[in-house]
Structure formats: C-alpha cells, structure tokens
Amino acid sequence: MVHPDFFSDIESILGVAAVLRSRSDLLSYTENTSGFFREIAGILLPKTTADVQSCVRVARRFKTPLYPISAGKNWGMGSRLPIRDGSVILDLKHLNRIRKIDGNMGYAVIEAGVTQTQLAQQLRSQNCSYFLDVTGSSGHSSIIGNAMERGISYNGLRAEQLMHLEIVDGRGELIRTGFQAQSEGTLSELYRYGVGPSLDQLFFESNFGIVTAATVHLLPKTEKQIQFSLSLRDASALPDVFDALRTLRERRFLFCTARAGNKDRLYPLIAPLLQRELEKMGAKRTRPELLEILNRHFKGTWFVGGAIAGTRAFTAVAQKEVRKTLGKFGTPRFMSGDKAQWIGHLTRLVRMKEIPALISALGSLQNLARGIPTEDTLPSVFWPVGLSPSKDPAAEIDRSAAGLLFSAPLAPLNGASVAMLIQVIESVCVKYALSPAITLNTATDRLIEAVISLHFNKQDSVVTKKAQMCLKDLNAELARQGFFQYRLTVEDMPEAINPNNPGWTLIRELKTLFDPDDIIASGRYCPPLTGLDSAKSPT
Fold this sequence. Notes:
The chain has about 550 residues and is an alpha+beta fold. Among the domains are: about 100-220, Uridine Diphospho-n-acetylenolpyruvylglucosamine Reductase, domain 3; about 225-375, 3-Layer(aba) Sandwich (Vanillyl-alcohol Oxidase, Chain A, domain 3), CATH 3.40.462; about 400-495, Vanillyl-alcohol Oxidase, Chain A, domain 3. Helix content is about 35%, strand content about 20%. It has helices spanning about 5-15, 25-30, 50-60, 115-125, 145-150, 160, 185-190, 240-250, 265-280, 285-295, 310-325, 340-350, 355-365, 380, 395, 415-430, 460-480, 490-495, 500-515, and strands at about 20, 40-45, 65-70, 85-90, 100, 105-110, 130, 160-170, 175, 210-215, 220, 225-230, 260, 300-310, 335, 400-405, 410, 435-440, 445-455. The strands form four sheets. Strands 12, 13, 14, 15, 16, 17, 18 and 19 form an eight-stranded antiparallel sheet that branches. It has a five-stranded antiparallel sheet with strand order 5-6-10-8-9. A four-stranded mixed sheet has the order 1-2-4-3, with helices on both faces. β8 (about 160-170) and β9 (about 175) form a beta hairpin.
C-alpha cells in the first residue's frame, strides 16, 4: 500500500496534473495485449531528468516501488505492466527532447521519450546525410526503450547503436557512462568505453537505474538501395537458405537484417494493407478474396526478404550475387526506385488493380530498411482475430480484443539450427491448436533472432490461458534445445531467475549498490531484494 503522503509530495514537485490516480487512468495503463494482470497504485509523468531524480528520492523515502516505462509499446511482452503488484508507473514519455543532432559525425543525443518518428522526421527536416535504423514496430515506440531491451532493427542490433547513457540510480544520483563521466565533448559521443571499466552494459535489461538519455549512432545514407524477396518453392529448403544468407553476409554482400517469414506472418502483414489500397481504388474485396489474391502472388509457405545497399556499382554486383546464391531456392524479385513510377508502369502494363495495390501496400514496409518508420505493421496484430484497427492502431492495440504474445529465442545462423527451431515451434504449437507467426532474422553474421507471435482473442479467457500456457511450454522446450530467449515477458522474468546461480547472485549484489532499497523495477531481470512476491499470476 502506497503511503498517501508519497503522492502529495510528488504533486508538490511535478504538479497535480502529472500524478494520475483515477480508475480510468489505472485501467488504461494496465490494459495489455498479453492478457496479463497487475495492480498499480498510480502514474507519474516527469518532464526532466531532475524530475526523475526527485521522484526516485521521494519513492526511496516512502519505500514505494517505481516501474519506469518510456513509450509503453512493449506489446506481446506485457506492454506497460510492471513485474510487481503495487508499483507506481514512472512514465517518461514527456522526456522527449532531441538534445543534439550531429549531421557531420552521425549521432543524436536523445531523451528516453523520443520516438522513432520524432527523430526520423527531424533528421529528414535537416536533410541529414544519416538516418535512424528503425524497427518494424510503431513509429511511436521509444528508441531508448527498445534499445534497453536489446531490440533488433532493420540493419543491426539496437544495443550496439546506443552509448553514453545518462542514468538516475535508485538513490536518485545521476550517472553518466563513457568519457562523459570525465568531461563533456565530442569524443564522449563517439567512443562508448571511456577509460577503465565500462558501465554501459550493466544497464541494458537491468533494473539498476533509469536511463533518461543516451547517444544513438545513426547510419549513413547510401547511393542506392535494392529490396529483394523470394517465395520458397520447397519449405524444406529453408535451412539451406539460411546457410546461403550467412555466406552472403560473411562475404559482405549483405549488411542488412535479412529475414524469412512463414505464411502466418506474411499474410496478416500484407492483407489489411492490400485491403486499404484496393478500397482507395474503388475495388473493395472481402477477406476470402484478399486471401485468394495473396495465394496467387505468393507461392509457397516461406518468404525471404532483405535489402542491398551501397554505391550503384556495389549494388549491381551484390544483386547478381544474391540472384545466383538464392536463385536455386526460388525466383528472387528486386525492386528499387520511386514507388509511384512502379505503380504507374504496372498499371499500364497489366491493366489490373491488384498488382499496383500490392506494390503500394508493400511500399511503407520496404522503406523500413531506409529508416522510415511506419504504423503499417500494426494492423497485422488485428487481422488474425478478424478485427480491423482504427486510424490510430498504436493507441488501440492494448484495449482491443487482439491478443499477442511473443517468444524471442536466439539460434546459431546455420541450417541445422533453423531445422530444429522450426521443428520445436511447430511441435509445441500444434498441441495447443495455435498457428504461430514466425520470423527468422539474421541478427548478425553468426546469429538468428526468431520472433514467434501467438495471436488470440483475449476477450476469451480460455483461449487467452491456452496461449499463455503455450508460450511457457514453447520457451521451456526451446531452452532444452539450447535456444534461449534474449528478452522476456513480465511473467517470464521471475521464473527465469535462479537466485542460487552465481551470476544472478552477483546481479543481486550489484542491485544493492545502485538501488539499495529495491525501488526501481523490482524483479526485472534481477532477484528481488525484498521477500515480497515479484509477480502476480495472469488471469
């Protein structure tokens, strides 16, 4: 139970409007795609790093647990829910200043609430020669929030693009990592380690402090970018495809995160966008008709895609190499240039509406690799349960009937691992009569990130429980085969922690140094310091 003086003291610092405690506010923050349940005591809305420090100091005085979030778009993992009941949400969405953009050296200094769209638009308005490496999530998602969960973007690992962290620890003290700890200057934005032990990685997927700002490295724009895709003629060739993709990456023909998705991933992604584009052309189609169109144009059950980027000379050579290497598995298709030109050409060529509608539907998805965020991936959450989102799907997902749970295991980038991974996923999900949407991403030259989505109607408590049980069984079986999760849901974190393991023991000891009263995100990737239960069972 939170002491009433806690909120009155916070109101005197932040103002009454920055402290939310109404029933409707609490409900809006606890709604989530995963069907989990938590009780929260309130929501705080700081605007500055100094505000965050004050909130932590007051929380420490009253022994009130805080759970920091940035944009709260952790869909499929618990959304804005804390690990522990009774927490007060510390929402950092108003810490949304872009403190600096260096278009010469290619970096930006941003606060925790800065979104993908916000920074991408600012870079475009300045005609910057660098771009933000985005994820396929909403443009309204936080860059720092995703990076602190070690999210994976279209061209690399987010955690490797972030450095020079500004952190408020559990004592309310301010910590700056890298050379920034010694003095300010350009060098501190370019070299992550500083001198002596590097602290940065202690704060990724941890609860040692609240990251309020960081430097994000940007990617240089290239002279040309070509998208490629192919449908696999034979699903059994998928392991060989990933051996081929590894070869292409190791030989430096591919730098992007190439990916493969099954039909349960591709169709929900494209179908609602195709429906939208056809309606614009006055050619509305039913759901079965949309599926028929997709079946005509996407043969097979697995689909591979990626991007080639560089100079015109390099992309020409790389395109030939991709065609030669992947051509044995299907017919690679390549697309570059202005989308409108392609649409106009095809309209004249085939005199049909569905092909230009398909290309238009794919347009925003193709632009993700160029650093242009989109909301067009979000309707795929609604499609599997027969729903159509409003014009603002990001605001609607958590309160809708669309249920979503993610499993995010890692695997070696080789064919044998791909074959085993698919076997495990399908063997577990079939027991629960669930059709998993699967994406396999080449996260590095040696590593695959798998994203397994379980879709369900969360208004049905029986179906929701079944999906949650399926996820637990799936993650357990994947772990038995050596495929471990690199990020966890709010339900899975406490179960993944073994307090008797020396590694977790050390993490707990570090927690006592940074946050001796266990104020910040108790139980998040760390054994709780108190004897209280760290989580509540889902309903």
